Amino acid sequence: MGCIGSSQARNESGVKRKKIRKPKPWAHTEPITRAQLTKMREEFWDTSPHYGGQREIWEALRAAAEAEVTLAQTIIDSAGVIVQNRDLTLCWDERGARYELPRYVLSEPTNLIREQGQ
Questions:
Q1: Can you say whether the dihedral through the CA atoms of 60, 62, 65, 70 is positive or negative?
Q2: Which sequence ranges form a coiled-coil region, renumbered to this chain (predicted)?
Q3: Quick one: which of 87, 65, 26 has its CA closest to 79?
Q4: Angle (deg, nearest 10), helices 69-79 and 55-65
Q5: From the centroid of its chain, how far is CA 63?
Q6: Would residue 93 count as lying in a domain?
Q7: Which residues fall within 8 angstroms of residue 20, CB to CB, at 6 or more apart?
Q8: Hey, what's the torsion of the CAs at 91, 102, 104, 59, to 10 degrees?
């Protein structure tokens, strides 16, 4: 049961849904360049369907991870994703498949190195 000021809302079927938010700041284990971060993200998204779940949900999660928060919320709601962690690090689909996203696909690290020419 939530209180009146709860950050959760109900969808059309009456199921509570969490409003998503940007992830908390994080730091990579060592300073990282934009190119390295992009490579890590591409490798994750290329292999994500192999972790299980539905390809369509992985595509929705990627679109949400790359969008602003309000658009991301719409994408998540439209895809029927059940958000366990408001920062999207842990989600489920309506069939019960688990989707775990690393922070590096959701936001920038605090120790991102600016490459020359940027």
A1: negative
A2: none
A3: 65
A4: 170
A5: 9
A6: yes
A7: 64, 69, 72, 73, 76, 83, 86, 87, 88
A8: -50
* pTM higher than 0.90: no
- Collapsing DSSP to helix, strand or coil, 5 comes out as coil
Q: Is residue 48 part of a domain?
A: no
Q: Model confidence over 35-79: pLDDT tens digits?
A: 999 999 999 999 999 999 999 999 999 999 999 999 999 999 999
Establish if 47 belongs to a structural domain: no
| Pairing relationship of beta strands 16-18 and 98-100 according to DSSP bridges | unpaired
Task: Please state which of the ranges 3-7, 88-92, 114-118 shows the lowest mean pLDDT.
Answer: 3-7
Distance CA 17, CA 23 (A): 18
